[in-house]
Design a protein that fits this description.
mainly beta; 2 helices; 56% strand
C-alpha cells in the first residue's frame, strides 16, 4: 500500500474507532402483536346507505423501530355485512413515558360492509386512508394496551368516510425496550 493510501485508510478509520469507543446506548427494535376490537360508524350518506355502525375485529402488529416511532399494521373483518380491511402506517408516540399519547396515519384497502344495498362488489372496494390518535399504555412492556379513535376515508365508487373507536391488547415477542451497550472497541 502506498503512503497516500495508508493515510486515507487511517483518516477514515480513526473517526469510526472514536465513535465505537463511546459506549453509547443503542436502541434495539422490538415487535408486538395482538387483537383489536372496535366500532366504525359511517358519516356520509353513501356509506350510511350501505350499512350502519359496524363491529370490527382485527389482528394488529406494532414494530417499534425507533424509541418513539412504530410501524403499525392491521388486518380486520367487519360485521354485519362482511367487510374487510388491511392497512399499514406509522405511529408517532408523543412522550417517552410508560403511558403516552400517540398519533398515527395509515393507508390500505377496505371492502366496506354491506347490508345488501350495494349492487356490485366493486362499489364496496377501494383504497383507504386513516388518521388516529390515542393512548398507549405500558409502552416498553411485554404487554401493551392501546386505545384509539380516528377517522377513515375509503375511495370506492362514492367516497365513504366515518369515525372509529378501538381498543387493542398486544403482546411482545421479544424484550421490549431492551437497550444494548455498544462495546465494540
Amino acid at each position: 500500500m502506498n503512503k497516500s493510501g495508508l493515510v486515507l485508510t487511517l483518516a477514515l478509520a480513526l473517526p469510526i474507532l472514536g465513535f465505537a469507543g463511546e459506549g453509547r446506548p443503542v436502541f434495539s427494535p422490538w415487535a408486538s402483536f395482538g387483537l383489536e376490537l372496535g366500532v366504525v360508524a359511517p358519516v356520509n350518506n353513501a356509506w350510511k346507505d350501505e350499512t350502519s355502525a359496524f363491529f370490527q375485529g382485527s389482528f394488529v402488529s406494532n414494530m417499534q423501530i425507533l424509541p418513539l416511532i412504530s410501524v403499525v399494521g392491521e388486518i380486520g373483518y367487519s360485521a354485519p355485512g362482511n367487510g374487510f380491511n388491511a392497512a399499514l402506517g406509522v405511529q408517532q408516540q408523543l412522550l417517552p413515558l410508560p403511558i403516552t399519547p400517540f398519533i398515527d396515519g395509515m393507508a390500505g384497502l377496505r371492502i366496506v360492509p354491506d347490508d345488501d344495498h350495494t349492487p356490485k362488489f366493486g362499489d364496496r372496494l377501494g383504497p383507504s386512508l386513516g388518521v388516529d390518535g390515542g393512548i398507549l399504555f405500558f409502552r416498553e412492556s411485554s404487554f401493551q394496551l392501546r386505545v384509539k379513535g380516528g377517522y377513515e376515508w375509503t375511495f370506492n365508487t362514492e367516497m365513504d368516510h366515518g369515525w372509529k373507536a378501538t381498543m387493542a391488547i398486544l403482546f411482545s415477542d421479544t424484550r421490549p425496550g431492551l437497550k444494548a451497550i455498544d462495546v465494540s472497541r
